[in-house]
Design brief:
Layout: H1 3-8, H2 15-43, H3 47-58, H4 65-72, H5 76-88, E1 92-96, E2 104-108, H6 110-127, H7 136-157
Length: 171
């Protein structure tokens, strides 16, 4: 039986519990963004290049500049400049589309993958001591629970879930 089928046969969820989850999620997002901005400032990295690298790492087919602009929520001209900089830094490569000569596809290089992993490891290393009081079992379940929450919100809002097939990302 699938998780969706299992959910359909369970007792309805209390709306107050859902409201508490959404409130906690909003607080988590605000805190995560604030910390993410500070970490990026300290490392000298901009959030848009990192967002582009994250979208490419998901490997969900959003590899054209226009797709990257939509996925990152920035203007196409900004993405074009970011791609040029990432390409200069050796973090991405650009290849022509076989069907449409006007289009191109952007891909992470090994260096781009390593850079993204480094940024994630740095953030995780900084956060790890603060999570020491959370039971290991809860920490192991958290990525799955957060993915389930993302998928539920996406279903409720009829949006695509970005992490449905990828690993959990840290900021």
């Amino acid at each position: 039986m699938t998780a969706t089928a299992t959910r359909a046969t369970t007792t309805p969820v209390d709306v107050d519990d859902v409201a508490a989850v959404l409130s906690s999620l909003s607080a988590l997002i605000r805190t995560s963004r604030a910390i993410g901005r500070r970490l990026l400032d300290e490392s000298g990295t901009s959030s848009t290049p990192l967002a582009v690298l994250k979208v490419l790492a998901r490997g969900d087919g959003h590899d054209r500049p226009g797709d990257l602009a939509v996925a990152t929520g920035v203007a196409p001209s900004v993405v074009s400049r970011v791609i040029a900089r990432l390409e200069e830094d050796g973090l991405v490569t650009r290849r022509k589309d076989d069907v449409d000569a006007r289009a191109c596809h952007i891909a992470l290089t090994d260096a781009g993958t390593a850079h993204l992993e480094h940024v994630h490891r740095e953030a995780a290393a900084r956060l790890a001591p603060e999570l020491a009081g959370i039971p290991a079992e809860d920490l192991h379940r958290m990525p799955h629970l957060l993915q389930e929450l993302e998928q539920a919100i996406a279903r409720a809002e009829r949006l695509p879930a970005h992490h449905a097939t990828s690993t959990t990302e840290s900021h």
